[in-house]
Design brief:
Layout (H helix, E strand, L loop, with lengths): L2 H9 L11 H25 L4 H13 L1 H11 L7 E3 L2 E4 L2 E2 L9
Antiparallel strand pairs: 1-2, 2-3
Length: about 100
């Protein structure tokens, strides 16, 4: 007796519909829907801007950090493409760049 039949008998006591979907077909559909959802989330994230107390605190600490200042100067002069400035903050690969301890009080 196939496993699906055994599971159907076991689960028959519950109120739901069991439908068999071919594994590969289901995988392709799920992958496509997740890709569209990810693209939408990524598009929204690219529009976001940091605001509020956290932004101000990080920005102030970055202004006091010598390494961050040197890197920001290189970005502004066009001498490096490894880092970028976004909302007045230093980023690398889409992530905010911070030295160790920059956010500590």
């Amino acid at each position: 007796m196939p496993k699906q039949v055994l599971w159907q008998k076991c689960l028959a006591q519950f109120d739901f519909a069991l439908k068999y979907k071919m594994r590969k077909t289901n995988f392709v559909t799920v992958a496509r829907s997740q890709k569209a959802e990810f693209a939408a989330v990524r598009a929204e994230a690219s529009k976001m801007h940091l605001e509020g107390k956290l932004f101000k605190r990080i920005h102030e600490r970055m202004q006091q950090d010598a390494t961050a200042q040197r890197l920001m100067a290189l970005v502004e002069a066009g001498k490096t493409h490894r880092f970028q400035l976004r909302d007045k903050l230093l980023t690398k690969g889409g992530h905010m760049f911070m030295q160790t301890g920059i956010t500590s009080a």
